[in-house]
Amino acid sequence: MRSESKQNMNNHADNTDERHAEAELMKRVAARDHSAFSELSEKYSALIFSTAFKVLNHYEDTEDIMNEVLATIWKKADTYHPRKGSLVTWICTTARNRSIDRVRSVQRRSALYDRFEEKLEGEAPEARSTGRELLYLSDARQVLQTAVVALSPEQREVIELAYFEGLTQKQIAERIDSPLGTVKARIRRGVERLRVSINDKLNGEGELLLSSVSE
Fold it and tell me: Residue 110 falls within a domain, yes or no?
């Protein structure tokens, strides 16, 4: 019994030391210590990758998520509190949540494309046999991409996250660490600018392309 009690005390001491070391590392990262961030990246990148890959099962998407999580840690290191859990748990939770967001965004974009294609099929059924439907769809997306480039950097950022990554406004606010009201305002102004440009070129079809952005 004494041996088991001693072992438990040693384990507790080890955990305490580890939590202290994690907290100190995150304090250095929060203070914008690049060497500390390099140390953290080297230590936890593999963990982030494996956690994300279990959700995504896609190498390139997993790499993107790993980089996003590391960027989040760099920006939000000061929000970590060791009393709420270990750093490993915090990092794994962040990686898993971001991976789930990526899955949902892909599903959301797919649903948007499906709605747009269904509308084209319904209004121009003859295009299915000629291939004009697919050509128009491709052109429409290109028009949107070109118009987005002309927006202000702030508006372009939120529009790209909303349309091209399929994030909700709440997810965008969390991603760029801005108030939800600010994100909504930027999207509203960006969509208004896009609406004129896109509808002029797509004969009104721009409203369908923009429908998911303003949701």
Answer: no
Q: Is the pTM of this model over 0.70?
A: no
Residue written as token pair 């279990």:
54
pLDDT of the residue at 95: 93
Q: Looking at 100, 135, 166, which one is the last position of a domain?
A: 100
- Give the pLDDT band (50/70/90) at residue 215: very low
Together in a domain, 58 and 25: yes
